[in-house]
Amino acid sequence: MDVDHYSVLGLPSGEEGANLTPKEITKAYREKARDLHPDKRKDDPNAHENFIKLKSSYEILVDEKARKLFDDLLRVKRDQQLRFAQQDSKRRKMMSDLEDRERASFTPDPSVKAKEEEERISRKLKDEIARIRAMHADKGTSMGTGSGSGLYQVKVGREGNNGGGGGGGLDKEKVLKVSWEKIGEDYTAEKLRELFSRFGEVEDIVVKSSKKKGSALVVMATKEAAVAATGSVSGSLSNPLLVVPLKPTIAAEFPVPQKAQETDRFSNLVGAGYRAFEDAVLQKLKEAAEKQQK
Known about the structure:
By secondary structure, the protein is of the alpha+beta class. The chain has helices spanning 5-8, 14-18, 22-36, 47-62, 64-85, 89-104, 110-143, 189-196, 223-229, 256-270, 272-293; strands at residues 152-155, 175-181, 202-209, 213-220, 235-236, 239-240, 242-245. Mean pLDDT is 76; it is low at 144-168, 251-256 and 265-270.
């Protein structure tokens, strides 16, 4: 792996680069992206290739697993360079003779072992790069081609509702509001689907992500599944989920003051911003259902 992804973003490499925060990496990427954007370099025939290289390096450094593998690869190379730098010609000859004797006695060669470790990490890094590219290609089909930090993540549970029913609208009693704090483990659409599938079939999941709080709308296949999931899904103990119905099912025997109290409590928990988001998402889901019926 000859590309130093830190250098591509104009960042220090080595141990200093490994200590950079994702926020610092994103800031550096945005500054470089503004400078290298093809629209600003129309006379540069390599502008598009350089911009793609910049974006690829950024995607590797913001992916936790891929970045760790890349940092390990750099560390192995640094250790190897340091070893050779500390050896003078005489010592190198002595070590060469010693390594020859060790190979003759079937003792593992340290340089060969280091090379094998470098190749192993390189293979893993290539696999992670392929995974990141495939993930972004899948996102592109549902989120468009825009670049940036990706504040909104939409995961559709099915590719379409087969036989959408006569009404054409979305039954709000099957929709759950889910929210969590951005501490510890985060929740993806796949993780939420795994949690809620224990209570019944999940039709759709829409995830909204912000810096401090995560939220989602989960559409269950039946009202019974939505009722069963409400208050039962807790998620991780370090970062529990708050699950409330979008339209609470209110029993006839409940007094009117109790209804208002529960509604106010849910409104306070979710907030005006979340309501605006969910209304917009519901409208899009409704329009999609109407298009499928035509």
